[in-house]
């Protein structure tokens, strides 16, 4: 998708399609103004079609009179008094997904909220334009590759152009993550992900290191290797550096879980659940996509991305319940459940992250099924040890329309649940303890220093949609992109 911001009046717009937003029961279209012929052709159409302008409702007007466009895409914005951020996004996405036109325009005048700036609207429209197709099919991708979108504005400022650029970059990164997430486990192997990451050397100031099994052993990531040892797929530890700011500036470290198939190990999952576990690399995919975007857009920030990638399978060589494993940190862990593998590989990656003295560590993982019980399937679980970072993540989530909710972890009560008689801790709490997402976060927190701001995003319920038409959503790419953007602007 190529996005431009342009000063243009409605009659002059000559793209194949033009999106027009309409409020329920509105007499006149805001953006149409005094183009009488257009008002007429639209109201005729609306009365024939029975279009009610309900939120997200779509109707098409072909070859509207008095205009240069081939197609009007009318989208319902719902009742005007209920038009909020949520309604905005739903309507905008519905509209962009409703046409296969190669060139599409949209008028900012249709897309304004009372308490929001035009920059906000442009950012939202850009994100919606680029991410509207979900699930994202190969045809949709081909269309997006060719698609040109114009946002017609009244005044063209630097801020608007920048907002469009960020929105476009976010959309592109979301789609990257979606594509990786949707790949089957026999294609999207640890080796495949590492090869994808290797391609990032094409960007300036990027270094890519891929650690193979031997190198991972040399580092001492035994918890990671324990998870990988039941699989014939070679594990990979992907380490990426991007230096977009002064070398003296501490990097932000992103850590992403990439279990390319989680069968549960010897604590085998029920087969119906195993197919879905190809999405268990979504955290890693999000981290790779965000890293690539920052490097490509040359954001003034230093980044380290760490992606431990392997499979979790049952096998004669697999790690076993009751095993005691030494993590990279030196802490020993009793394996009480081989299906709690994500926390083991993330723990070792977090420990590894410390050597870069990062200003913050953010890990992204499809870590627990319990997060869906806690928050439903639209909100990502957030666990964070620092109020400033918490605030920044919440703000980013809000702007990016990628919601999170902070949950508790740590403390005496949760720690007690992870006690072990044979090791420093167990990898799971006793069955039936409840609070599975919080105990998982508590496990991870043992590998973080209190003085390093750390956040853990549990995206098990948000990184993909299950059910009849399962597909990857690319979350939490939008929130991570906004966060990095915020951090980059702060440091400038
Ligand atoms: N990858 C799963 C978590 C998951 C579950 C992601 C459902 C998406 C949908 C993770 O490795 C896992 O198996 N977690 C266990 C933890 C338990 C054994 C303490 C879980 O959630 O059941
Ligand atoms: Mn598991
Ligand atoms: Zn898993």
UniProtKB/TrEMBL annotation:
The active site is at residues 269, 343. It holds the Pfam family Peptidase_M17_N. GO terms for cellular component: cytoplasm. Binds 2 manganese ions per subunit. InterPro entries: Leucine_aapep/pepB, Macro_dom-like, Peptidase_M17_C, Peptidase_M17_leu_NH2_pept, Peptidase_M17_N. Mn(2+) 1 binds at residues 262, 339, 341. One of its GO terms (molecular function) is manganese ion binding. Its cofactor is Mn(2+). Presumably involved in the processing and regular turnover of intracellular proteins. Catalyzes the removal of unsubstituted N-terminal amino acids from various peptides. This is Probable cytosol aminopeptidase.
């Amino acid at each position: 998708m190529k996005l431009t911001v342009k000063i243009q009046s409605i009659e002059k717009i000559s793209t194949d399609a033009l999106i027009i937003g309409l409020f329920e029961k509105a007499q006149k279209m805001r953006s149409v103004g005094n183009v009488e012929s257009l008002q007429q052709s639209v109201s005729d159409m609306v009365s024939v079609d029975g279009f009610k302008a309900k939120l997200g409702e779509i109707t098409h007007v072909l070859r509207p009179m008095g205009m240069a466009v081939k197609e009007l895409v009318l989208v319902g914005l719902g009742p005007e008094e209920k038009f909020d951020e949520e309604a905005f996004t739903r309507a905008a996405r519905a509209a962009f997904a409703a046409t296969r036109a190669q060139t599409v325009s949209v008028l900012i005048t249709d897309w304004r909220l009372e308490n929001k700036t035009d920059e906000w609207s442009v950012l939202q429209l850009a994100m919606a334009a680029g991410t509207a197709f979900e699930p994202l099919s190969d045809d949709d991708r081909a269309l997006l590759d060719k698609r040109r979108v114009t946002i017609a504005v009244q005044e063209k400022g630097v801020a608007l152009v920048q907002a469009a650029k960020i929105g476009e970059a976010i959309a592109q990164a979301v789609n990257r993550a979606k594509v990786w997430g949707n790949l089957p486990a026999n294609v999207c192997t640890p080796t495949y992900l590492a090869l994808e990451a290797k391609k990032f050397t094409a960007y300036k100031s990027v270094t890519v290191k891929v650690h193979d099994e031997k190198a991972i052993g040399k580092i001492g990531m035994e918890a990671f290797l324990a998870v990988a040892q039941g699989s014939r797929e070679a594990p990979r530890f992907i380490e990426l550096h991007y230096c977009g700011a002064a070398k003296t500036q501490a990097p932000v470290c992103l850590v992403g879980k990439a279990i390319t198939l989680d069968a549960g190990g010897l604590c085998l999952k029920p087969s119906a659940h195993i197919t879905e576990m190809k999405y268990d690399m979504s955290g890693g995919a999000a981290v790779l996509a965000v890293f690539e975007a920052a490097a490509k857009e040359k954001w003034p920030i230093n980044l380290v991305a760490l992606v431990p990638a392997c499979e979790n399978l049952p096998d004669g060589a697999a790690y076993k319940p009751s095993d005691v494993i030494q993590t990279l940190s030196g802490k020993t862990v009793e394996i009480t459940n081989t299906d709690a593998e994500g926390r083991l590989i993330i723990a070792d990656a977090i420990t590894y992250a410390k050597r870069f003295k990062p200003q913050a560590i953010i890990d992204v993982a499809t870590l627990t099924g319990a997060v869906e019980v806690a928050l439903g399937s639209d909100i990502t679980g957030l666990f964070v040890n620092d109020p400033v970072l918490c605030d920044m993540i919440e703000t980013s989530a809000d702007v990016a329309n990628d919601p999170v909710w902070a949950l508790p972890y740590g403390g005496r009560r949760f720690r007690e649940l992870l006690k072990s008689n044979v090791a420093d801790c167990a990898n799971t709490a006793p069955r039936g303890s409840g609070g599975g997402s919080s105990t998982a976060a508590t496990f991870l927190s043992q590998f973080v220093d209190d003085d390093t701001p750390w956040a853990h995003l549990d995206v098990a319920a948000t990184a993909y949609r299950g059910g009849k038409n399962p597909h990857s959503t690319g979350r939490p790419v939008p929130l991570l992109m906004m966060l990095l953007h915020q951090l980059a602007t702060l440091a400038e």
